[in-house]
Predict the structure of Fanconi-associated nuclease.
Amino acid sequence: MKKVKKEKVIGPVVPVSYNRSILAAFEKQAKGKTCPLCNIKFSLASYRSHMNVCKVADDDDEIKVMASYTREEAILLRAGPEIVLGEENSGQEIPVNPKKKRRTGEEQLESTPNPPVVQAFDFDVPGPSTSSENLDPPSESSEVRSVEKEIKKSPVWENRRRSTRLAQNSQKSQSESQEAIVKKETATVLEVLASINNFETRIANSDRPTPYYVKYGDFYADNFWLPSDIITFYRFVECLSDGAKCLLVRLFVRKPNWYHLEKLEQKYTEILNIRGAAVELMKWEFISDDSTLKTLNEALRISDITVLKNVAKKFKIDGNKNRQDLVQSLRKFALSQQSIFGGTGSVELAVLKSLKTELGTCIKIKDEMVDLFKCLFTLYCPVTTNSANVIDNPASTNVYQDLLYMMLSVENGSAEFPAPNPCPNIASFYKNRAMLMEYVTAKALESSLVLQMSNGDHDIALDLAIDAKEFLDQMPLEQKKYYESLEIHERKFTSIWVHTRCCGHATSVLEKQKKYGMAVEWQKDLLITNKDVQSCCLDSRGMWWDRMLLNLDSHLKEKTECAKMIQIALTDSSILEKELLSIQDRALKLKEMPPDFRPPLNIGTPMKRVITARTISKSLGDGRVNRFVFRDEEKEEDVECSVEEAARRWYIENDEFTTGVHDEGATWHTLFGLLFYDIIFCTDAVMASVWHSEVQDCPSDLSNTLYLKRKEKFEERFEWLKDADQETIEDNIRRIWGMKQNETNRECSWKHFQSGIEDCVSIFQCIPRPAMLSIFRRLAENYRNSRSGFPDLTLWNPEKKTVAVIEVKGPGDRLSTKQRLWLSFFADNGIKAEVCHVEAQNSRLLV
């Protein structure tokens, strides 16, 4: 037990504590200790003498004697080799303070391939240089020889040598290569690519799978990256062991916080020697150790309740609190207590030191490493790492983690994508590293802004949006013109696009804060005043127009200004039809509009049907008002279902349809993808610029220039579909289905067809050919405008060759503009399209 040195106390002498008293000493002697060999209890006075003579029985199976030495032999063994004073080395200069080697454990030996056996007379120490006395070397002791002989024959010695040889053989190739790398401070891109190839070759020869995160494909030129970037890539591939690579990737996909090494060891059991991996990463400067943990807030953030209670107890703070209260108490104590010199810094440092002691070893990936690898992954797959994915799918909070999962899925064969594999192209629209880093920083800002909005921290979110606005204002004009010259599917992966979208988020924040006047000012700047961002965020401009008109009309009551803005909005060609219809509806209700106003869109009113469905009459406490149920006759019980399922069952039971799915357009998208697969997912040289990595599930221009870049091929396919016989088209559908049914792509949703290809063919047979061509032409020519808004249900009858689409609305629901557009389009092309309003019919039964 380590003794703690106590400070000398000046003042009156206090009574000696009980554990320091004579009585306690006698009690300790009386308790004694138990011999671990013979399991007999002895007093402390006789315990040591007994251990010197205690023997192990010959028939003891639990203990094995590795070596036996007499007292004299043990003393000589501890003393080390014998000193030789000879004349042959008397002229050599030996350092006065020879370098000592630290012993870290019983099994740690020198790292030479064959550690030399300790000899009795290997070490020479020169005598005094001025001495003329002849010192004869002493004769070799027979006892030392016997001890040496026993050591060499000892099983412990043999096991140590055997384990050392195994460890050296497993690390021999890596240590030899690292000897030349230790001094290497620069590298080229060609060397990095050569290292990746060599690494894959070594892995292939060792029958181990290549880590999916090492396959990066192509790189930019040397003058694109900083020298420190290239040497970092080189060291990652060439210097780090597999365990260190794996640990670095694990730290990269997590939040860049401090982590307990012990907890990481428990979590990532696939990394065999996680502590050795951490040492490697610190050696090559990929991660930081806890010596750089210098702020109290960071230490408090990673401390669990046990650590906090131990530290609170040390500083005599009440520890009977929850974690949040303990953090507040420790922070308040550190900032309120003054040291003897009047400041609070030393007290804060003392609390920090105690926290670090309780925490143990902590590591954190360096921020510059995070940014660098984000840049690399952005180049590898800008589509998957786009921060817009976080907006569309709030559950996807880490796009880089999603990318690595997709890479792993491709590597182990559990997922297939339509992109070429390997993909020979790389995002080539970044002129320099600074431009790429600006985009990566903008994505991080937007992700943080969206997170703050979802958490309700509107002030912080607005501050981030202001930072984005300042960045746009300070961007050089030449750089803005370059971004404008890019194609749309490339421009959306630039910093100006992301920062413009962040300014759009600011308008939503201001509206939630009910600052409608400020929101209108931001919206006018995006839509009218700031000409530099007119070509950015084309998908969002219609929504910004619609929100600005709503603020002017409903919240600010500025009717005249609203009418003026409507006329300007109708001239913006980037507005989608769904927002254009909303603007048209507002204009028709506004008295201040000119009398000669003509609506740009003409759509009819959809057919309506009202049905009733049973609901649970009691609330279950989750806020849902209507819980629909249907009767399962086989199980003789009521089963809860969605409102769409209730409507689907009603149509199957009461109308002419025999098959139906709740797909929200997935059925129509799947047919579109099957009939135009080779055109949409074309990977030839002409379409090379829209494929950037092997994990893309769609071309990057799907929502922008899908038709324009493939117009000739689309028209040829439409002509073929117009004249081809039914059997030929069905054979083509079956052929593509069989080839691609295991593939993940943006168009085809295989799971919605319960009977597989036959369900898909049966609905195709029910769709009139002219209507099908019109629907698919609308999708192809304006995919961005028409990809969503399909009705909820698709119903068909293979025998009667009839098909219908149904939009289901529960109590209180209303049609959106894009749903109205699709219902009108289906009806205009001869397909039955209805709005089904489901009214609740209370039931006394509970599920």
Observations:
- Residues 1-22, 82-181 have pLDDT under 50 and may be disordered.
